[in-house]
Design a protein that fits this description.
The chain is an alpha/beta fold and 324 residues long. The strands form two sheets. Strands 4-3-2-5-6-9-7 form a seven-stranded mixed β-sheet, with helices on both faces. A two-stranded antiparallel ribbon has the order 1-8.
């Protein structure tokens, strides 16, 4: 897929969450000590929190390996060796492994495994963890600059796993969807409010252009909630583990989905405007012509863009296409 996905990404990186991690008390053991030894300082501004609870790590790995959220890592790994379902068997890509809370558990499955880490200090640490696993390797760099076919050549469907920092949640999901059918599914963890925005219903303040984009190209299922105490530094909000299953919206063509993306971007620029005004301005066609298109689609031109459902956006796109 060649989606202009970056256009749907919200300005998450501008949000500041809580105090800076450098003001936290100094610890001598565990995650805090390891970070200090590596000279890594988590950024609260970017929502950079490291998973420290092994029980949560086991649950995430169990979901990724197809064993379900309640299965321990050892059981899931054993199930993988015995032959997991075809939909979930295959290579694994971990985005931003951090200190490796999930990494060794995933590599131990025996599947081809690649971890992509931007921070060179963390990448070196992960490389050390993965030395016993000939099926695993580390790639240093930004995931947004990578192509899945280069990271894991072949045709086998890939499972993507990531604990996503607040600042890159939407870009990372867009990247996953841009990889097309190579991604079987993505098991992701993000702040709960971000997950709520991704699954927001029309008419709610969280519903926006990226919500529509995700619905056009994937299904989202929430797996379980994770409390702030499972991380270092401790965030101010809960997190959620969720699964993204790429798939085209039923009954649509690639051309229709691309048209919906273009129209939604145009119409969601001004939330205080009526749909006719925002669409007319965004497409450069004027309010009168926008009203005519909306009328043919059976959508009230006086509504706000955030109230429109995906099915209705599809009808608008089809009405626009018929008018050309």
């Amino acid at each position: 897929m060649n989606h202009p996905a970056r256009s749907f990404i919200s300005r998450e990186s501008s949000t500041t969450r809580g105090r800076d991690a450098r003001s936290a008390p100094r610890a001598t053991t565990g995650v805090a000590a390891m970070l200090r030894a590596l000279d890594v300082r988590p950024s609260r501004r970017l929502g950079q929190n490291f998973l420290s609870d092994p029980r949560v790590a086991e649950r995430i790995v169990a979901v990724a390996l197809g064993g379900g959220a309640g299965v321990g890592a050892a059981t899931a790994a054993a199930g993988a060796a015995a032959g997991p379902p075809a939909a979930t068997a295959g290579p694994i890509l971990e985005i931003g492994p951090g200190l490796g809370a999930l990494t060794e558990r995933l590599a131990a499955s025996g599947r081809p495994f690649v971890a992509v880490e931007l921070d060179l200090r963390l990448a070196e640490h992960i490389e050390t963890l993965l030395r016993p696993y000939p099926n695993a390797r580390v790639v240093r760099g930004d995931i947004l600059d990578q192509r899945l076919d280069a990271l894991l050549p072949g045709t086998a469907p890939v499972t993507v796993v990531a604990n996503l920092p607040y600042a890159i949640t939407s870009p990372a999901i867009a990247w996953v969807l841009e990889q097309g059918p190579r991604v079987a599914r993505a098991v992701l963890m993000a702040q709960r409010e971000v997950a709520q925005r991704l699954a927001a219903k029309p008419g709610t303040k969280e519903h926006g252009s990226f919500t529509v984009f995700l619905a056009l190209h994937a299904e989202l299922n929430v797996e379980f909630r994770v409390s702030p105490g499972a991380f270092h530094p401790r965030p101010d909000v809960d997190s959620v583990v969720f699964t993204v299953m790429p798939r085209p919206y039923p009954g649509t063509t690639p051309e229709e989905r691309a048209a919906v993306e273009r129209i939604v971007r145009a119409a969601t620029g001004g939330r205080r405007k009526t749909l006719a005004n925002s669409l007319g301005h965004g497409l450069g066609i004027g309010a009168e012509r926008a009203r005519a298109i909306l009328g043919r689609a059976g959508v009230d031109p006086g509504r706000r863009a955030e109230t429109v459902t995906v099915d209705e956006w599809i009808q608008v796109a089809r009405a626009e296409g018929a008018a050309e």
